[in-house]
Write a structure and sequence with these properties.
five-stranded parallel β-sheet, UDP N-Acetylglucosamine Acyltransferase, domain 1, alpha/beta, elongated, 2 domains, 7 helices, 40% helix, 263 residues, six-stranded mixed β-sheet
Length: 263
């Protein structure tokens, strides 16, 4: 018992740089209190003392702001940081070494009495405010970004952001493995996000720019071919004045803000 408690407290120190002492973790961490009460209520539930289990879970909700159904299955070294507003449903299953931040919901999408809550693998981080809904599978080592809404299965090792949640792929460069090793060494993914996380909007813009570059090259090839055939067609594009883009945008805004256009 004491060995397991020591192991759990050590895992809290690894994931929360604000933790300063064992006494602080045991007395001032609502996520720790919520998990301790759930262990007892889950045991009562397995003994078919369901009303008593629900009342203990309700007491835990009042005291910690964390709502965990007594039937939920939770693995070892599970840590809820901050805790307020976390909801874990009846048929939810959570593996070992998982971390949830405040406002996370592991919810259902049906009223039928069946498996209706998500299953989380091992070593998963779920950022603040994220919602994981339905009987879906979240693979080992996945990261769910803050405020994401996940409604479909997520493969192992994936990073999910957005509403609805979508998997983002890290940029493939020579330093990606080095960065991953350093992140693992630090052992802290703040709210399910990392500085190296790719921006899906920026990635989409990059793809558009690549496409525009290819179109520009094709137009030049086509223009040269038509010129050799003595067909005069002007396919040349005007040069883009990058330096004056900001001034042009401000002039356009000013002209459309109520003043009369210049003659």
């Amino acid at each position: 018992m004491f060995k397991g408690l020591r192991e759990y407290i050590d895992s809290v120190f690894q994931r929360d740089p604000a933790a300063r002492s064992t006494l602080e973790v045991l007395t001032a961490y609502p996520g720790v209190h919520a998990l301790a009460l759930h262990r007892v209520s889950h045991r009562l539930w397995s003994w078919r003392l369901k009303w008593l289990a629900r009342m203990l879970a309700q007491l835990g909700r009042w005291l910690t702001g964390v709502e965990i159904h007594p039937a939920a299955k939770i693995g070892r070294r599970f840590f809820i940081d901050h805790g307020m507003g976390v909801v874990i449903g009846e048929t939810a299953e959570i593996g070992d070494d998982c971390t949830l931040y405040h406002g996370v919901t592991l919810g259902g999408t049906t009223w039928k009495k069946e498996k209706r809550h998500p299953t989380l693998g091992d070593n998963i981080v779920v950022g603040a405010g994220a919602k994981i809904l339905g009987p879906i599978q979240i693979g080992d080592n996945a990261r769910i970004g803050s405020n994401s809404v996940v409604v479909k299965d997520i493969p192992p090792g994936a990073t999910v952001v957005g509403i609805p949640g979508r998997v983002v792929t890290p940029r493939d460069d020579s330093r990606s493995k080095q960065r991953a090793a350093m992140a693992e060494k630090l052992g802290f993914d703040a709210y399910g996000l990392t500085p190296q996380m790719p921006d899906p909007v920026a990635h989409a813009i990059d793809l558009m720019l690549d496409h525009m570059h290819l179109v520009d090259q094709k137009l030049k090839i086509l223009s040269n071919a038509l010129g050799k055939a003595n067909i005069k067609v002007n396919l040349d594009l005007p040069e883009l004045d990058v330096n004056n883009l900001e001034n042009s945008a401000s002039d356009t805004t000013a002209g459309g803000s109520g003043g009369s256009p210049k003659e």
